[in-house]
Design brief:
Oligomer: single chain
Number of helices: 9
CATH superfamily of the largest domain: Ribosomal protein S4/S9, N-terminal domain
Number of domains: 2
CATH architecture of the largest domain: Orthogonal Bundle
Structural class: alpha+beta
Radius of gyration: 18 Å
Strand order of the largest sheet: 2-1-3-5-4
Order of helices and strands: HHHHHHHEEEHEEH
Helix content: 40-55%
Distance between the termini: 25 Å
CATH class of the largest domain: Mainly Alpha
Length: about 200
């Protein structure tokens, strides 16, 4: 699966929101709260433009490409209930997002990298797909290697992971998915109604 590897600070400034959590990107948004590019009078955003910004927030926040976001949208549309809520809950259930929310990574790209490199085990099996959908009762652990254990001990002590639907044991580096997330547990402030309207075009 592809991922965005361009300048993160530009995306934060373009969307006016802290999508990327790396220190440099956060400082850039605090220092320059206006969009990147030539400083000029900005036109009022159209309805299409506002919806596009909301969609881009989801894409960059969860590290998705357009094709994968639309795949989640098609799946959410076939599920019972509100399509927008289903879409965000599917994104929240990604393995890399759970690793980040639990506090085993400082940023989502870091969590994704750890998943791709096979640093984590899901229910005792080593996995390398960050897009795996976790279920209630799933157990995520760090692979039993001293260098990985040491690294993630340091990361978890520096990271701030607070998540009501995930239980994290810092001593054993074990994450337990206690329940499935709901719309109230989604950490991204986004107008999902506009995203649904945009993707339904």
């Amino acid at each position: 699966m592809g991922r965005y590897v361009g300048p993160k600070a530009r995306i934060n400034r373009r969307l006016g929101f802290q999508v990327f959590e790396s220190a440099g990107a956060v400082r850039a948004l605090e220092r320059k709260e206006y969009p990147p590019g030539m400083v000029q009078r900005r036109r009022k955003a159209t309805i299409y433009g506002l919806a596009l910004i909301e969609k881009q927030k989801i894409k960059y926040y969860y590290g998705l490409r357009e094709k994968h976001l639309r795949r989640y949208f098609d799946k959410a549309r076939r599920m019972k209930g509100n399509t927008g809520n289903n879409l965000l809950v599917l994104c929240e259930r990604r393995l890399d997002n759970v690793v980040r929310r639990a506090g085993l990574a400082i940023t989502r790209p870091q969590a994704r990298q750890g998943c791709v490199h096979g640093h984590f085990q899901l229910n005792g099996r080593t996995v390398s797909k960050p897009s795996i959908q976790v279920r209630a009762g799933d157990v995520i652990t760090v692979k039993n290697r001293p260098n990985l254990k040491k690294m993630y001990q340091e990361v978890s002590s520096a990271s701030q992971g607070e998540c009501s639907w995930v239980s994290f044991d810092a001593d054993e580096l074990k994450v337990v998915v206690t329940s499935l997330p709901t719309m109230d547990d989604v950490s991204l402030p986004v107008d999902v109604g506009q995203v649904v309207a945009f993707l339904s075009r």
